[in-house]
Amino acid sequence: MNRILVTGSVGQIGSELTLALRKRYGNNNVVAGVNKTQPTGELKETGPWEIVNCTSMDAISNIVKKYKIDTIYHLAALLSAVAENNPQLAWDVNVNSLVNVLEVAREHKCAVFTPSSIGAFGPTTPADNTPQVTIQRPTTMYGVTKVTGELLCDYYYHKFKVDTRGLRYPGIISYITLPGGGTTDYAVEIFYEAIKHNKYTCFLKKGTYLDMMYMPDALDAAMDLMEADPSRLKNRNAFNVTSMSFDPEMIAAEIKKLIPGFAMDYKVDPLRQSIADSWPNHMDDTAAREEWGWNPKYSLTAMCKDMVEKLKIKLQ
Ligand SMILES: NC(=O)c1ccc[n+]([C@@H]2O[C@H](COP(=O)([O-])OP(=O)(O)OC[C@H]3O[C@@H](n4cnc5c(N)ncnc54)[C@H](O)[C@@H]3O)[C@@H](O)[C@H]2O)c1
Asked: Residue 177: which of 314, 54, 282 has the closest Cα?
């Protein structure tokens, strides 16, 4: 594996994953695929970038041919809250684009990494210690597209031997690029507001437990899964992975230890609360630990400490 295309590379995960991949595989071997927003700074300066609208199969195919790509990290997607407000576009971007990527991968023999999400579960899924294989009846368009994506990736693996692998990411917390309209965005916003204003109004209510992960672990998970020995993988699309599970009170309490006087109140957003209520409290990620050595480094305490330190410098 040495020639990589990342789609959605200016997004929250893509903007950091592209740089991490460049560090690991060489700057010129990793193409940043963008839709409308052009890359800036390090992303633009350290390696090639191209406009790749993934709803066009030709656009993907042209770049794969031009750079002799052998691995696609397909991150282009609409996130949960955005998808719920535009379900037709969400289907087009999240499903039709994936079909395009898989078809190009089949033709050009590329491996494909596609993130699924905790959104692939629904209210009838066991909410605690959610098993790797369990009921998946999501009630959001985001979830419908994520389950469809998992099934499509498995189908292309079994039918056409495309090397597809995926993770069910929980909410991802980072200080570089803001999240793109998901239900777990509060866990990033809270740090910005705590540092800037010493207070935060949370859009999810007390007691809403969700799985979360700090970005360095999310990046390692993607790259480690793609490097895993295929003979060890009993599952492929997609692995439960989590580092921590907390509710708004727990993260606020950790931040208070680092920013004395920090206060949080609540103004619940009914759309995002209903989405969060349909997702697990905490997934069981034993399969990822056993099959490819998933072992996250950041706990809630360690993540909060690093976020506050890094974000204070960024916002200065
Ligand atoms: N961030 C999270 O907390 C989280 C959690 C679970 C799963 N995921 C999944 O990880 C992946 C990446 O998420 P993210 O947080 O970086 O999302 P994001 O919204 O920050 O970025 C997505 C990117 O996709 C691009 N895009 C949209 N339509 C496109 C198109 N037609 N062609 C090409 N690019 C297009 C957007 O420009 C954007 O840069 C998604 O599949 C998402 O569902 C993210």
From this structure: 314
